[in-house]
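Sample 1 of the test manifest.
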Amino acid sequence: MNLVEATGLVKHFHTGHGAVQAIDGVDIAVREGETLGIVGESGCGKSTLGRLLTGLLPPDRGSVRLLGEECAGQSRRALRRIRPLVQVVFQNPYSSLNPRRTVGRTLLEPLAVHRIGTPRDRAARVAAMLERVGLSPAAAARYPHEFSGGQRQRIAIARAMMLEPRLILCDEAVSALDVSVQAQILNLLAEMKREFGLSYVFISHDLSVVRHIADRIAVMYLGRIVEVADRQRIWSEPRHPYTRALIASVPRPRPGRPKPAPVLHDDLPSPIDPPSGCRFRTRCPVATPSCAGQAPVLEKMGADHACACFHA
Amino acid sequence: MAEADPFLKRFGRNRPAAIGAVLLLAVTAGGLLAPMLSAPDPWAMVARPFLWPGSDPRFPLGTDMLGRDLLAGILHGARVSLLVGLIATAAAAFVGISIGALAGYYGGRIDNLLMRLTELFQIVPPFILAVVLVVILEPSVGTIILAIAAISWPQLARLTRAEVLSIREREYVEAAVSVGMSDRRIIFREILPNAAPPLLVSTSLAVATSILLESSLSFLGLGDPNVMSWGTMVGAGREVLRSAWYVCAVPGVAILVTVLAINLVGEGLNDALDPKRRRR
């Protein structure tokens, strides 16, 4: 069953220079119990997609169904009731915790907002959750600035877990951490998933991290999904030229070997005025004049594999 | 470190802030105990005019050109200054912070509407606006407070709006939204506490400015004719500035000390409230 089902999502941001087409026609589903990885360069709309899927941002068009219930177009009050099902862990562990609140207060807040349990009960839950994420219950009395980045990310995970959600959005959740700490946090996320039957939407620009944790991977380019497949498949037989380029750019630990030539040139085109037809055609090694016409849509390429390219 | 009141401790360790607090307490005590510490009526002519400070132990600050006790004037004037400063600032802070927070948090049309309203108050030179308001409404303590509050809130509104705009985008606010907190709770629990240091400093400065404004209005003869105020005293003394400068200087120093004390306390509060400085 699909936990979240989004169809025809469009989100444009209006700026002084024109509308930024952050998300332009995306269909995606998150299945119960899976980790969906979303990868792409910065500016491709990953974070916007994450916020649309979790109801933090209303879409301009399209629908987001959470456990069969439509979220798009709902009032803030109505959304508040379904919000506990979906929680978020953000990238920057230094700005995702209120610096003026003790860790305990921050973790209590979700329970207080939804009037769950008695005060004593809540304190016990906070202590248990702190232990579960590998911190001492005494941490509740301290302030965020007294913790390291990795510890703060554990606190952020604990906060996300307080309401027993079904889905957690991890928006670049380990990108700001040291590599050794990244591994610890990824392991913690994996343990939590097993223990509580969670699903994740895991957003990252780092393909090797997503490969490690995701069951299914969606590749985004300039506001659209260009390829989606399960982890093995996307790694072993990528179909979209952009996916191939991304995989080729992942550094491999082979000292002494000459570095491969960079596969992608130039920067991402402006999302205010994206290329016509296939948005990747301006940087694509296999583009033909026909790519400038119609935009390619995601087409099935076998079980659990879809790709939006005329030449795939 | 002892458990008891770390906030007071941090505040006390800050030497300038502690000095400011002591001075402010002294001014407050002087105002409260005015009738006991000196003549009950500061308007009463009690001695020979132009007694220089220190020349008569019964009138340590001397007397003015009408033979009124300057000490009594200073002590009674403290009441007016503090009253006007605190109430006008409280009103300005309430209006300014509410409007700024709403404009910054909701943005869009609400922001536009509220900020145009704020600018309406800012396009008139503030002191002129205060003078006009007091003249139209007849000088009294109440109208002076109203006039000062009316010209003080726009600045606080703009500052609050700017702070809220930047804090609203922080990830912990987004986390609060995803937890399901109401807008009101987010504004009061997540955003305003983090906007507190600049607002607090600005508000304490506004108290000082209000005291100065009240003195300026009184100096121009727009004070409440029934109460003795520091500004009135300076205004009265300016005619004899060359022969008896102390008549202006004594209330002038009172204004200076009070305003300075409030600024020191404001700075101290700012430092003491910042959790990043706690473990020092």
